[in-house]
Amino acid sequence: EKTFKYFLVSFGTFKTAPAPVHSYTPANAEPASRPPWVTDDSFSQKFAPGKTTTSVTKHILPRGAPVPPPASTSAYPSPVSTSSQAPAIARGTVQRAERYPASSRTPLCGHCNSIIRGPFLVAMGRSWHPEEFNCAYCKTSLADMCFVEEQNSVYCERCYEQFFAPTCARCHTKIMGEVMHALRQTWHTSCFVCAACKMPFGNSLFHMEDGEPYCEKDYIALFSTKCHGCDFPVEAGDKFIEALGHTWHDTCFICAVCHVNLEGQPFYSKKDKPLCKKHAHAINV
């Protein structure tokens, strides 16, 4: 039997699950006015210098990369109301702020949280003082420049490319915008293509052969075994017969004259065609 392998490209968005919240209530709660070191005999042991209940996870960034600010002190905090949030945008998408002239509208600045009196910018569903909407790393003004949002901060394209953008496995350049994840690597959507027809896969199935990806059509044309009787591929799960130097579907291995099925039966051949015993000497084949 022949084994066929199928692969599927996948788009995702990874989200970090919130840490579980634990609460502890003593069995015999004392009045709140009494300090814990009076009511709890083991208090000193719980908070001994050699003990800790805090776990720290280190994230390694490239040398010189900006350190993302804590969520509570972010220079560009997320909106509190979910109804006011902008639609979700794919990671690495290049955006541009919109300018609005001074008017009777006085929005709050997303950076300093103060009322904006005068011209302002709108980006990521928030309003900003033009002089306070800057790259979180190099401090370049983004009022008239494209920017990319990353970890609750905004960066100019140059800084994002240097510190955050993944590298394409094919062209080895930084990926700005939509990223494709396949074969445990990252690709530009236009770089992950069929090795034969060079067409991008998108989110369609692909097959691997000799380390190269192929679309369904080209893989069948180039590598699949075809039935000598019907010229269609012999696919996984199909019953087939090896005879006369060719592969046949079990239902396609028939007498060329009367079309009786010859599976498991004695047969003859003429001009590379199978014949039953009755038509073994047929002239018109």
UniProtKB/TrEMBL annotation:
Record's keyword annotation contains Protein transport: no
Stored SMART domains: LIM (SM00132)
Cellular localization per UniProt: Cytoplasm
GO MF term set: actin binding; metal ion binding; muscle alpha-actinin binding
Residue span of region Disordered: 60-87
Biased composition (Low complexity): 72-84
Domain (LIM zinc-binding) ranges: 107-165, 166-225, 226-285
Biological process, per Gene Ontology: actin cytoskeleton organization; heart development; muscle structure development
GO terms for cellular component: adherens junction; filamentous actin; stress fiber; Z disc
Keyword set includes Membrane: no
Keywords of this entry: Cytoplasm, LIM domain, Metal-binding, Repeat, Zinc
Protein name: LDB3 protein
Name of the gene encoding the protein in the UniProt record: Ldb3_0
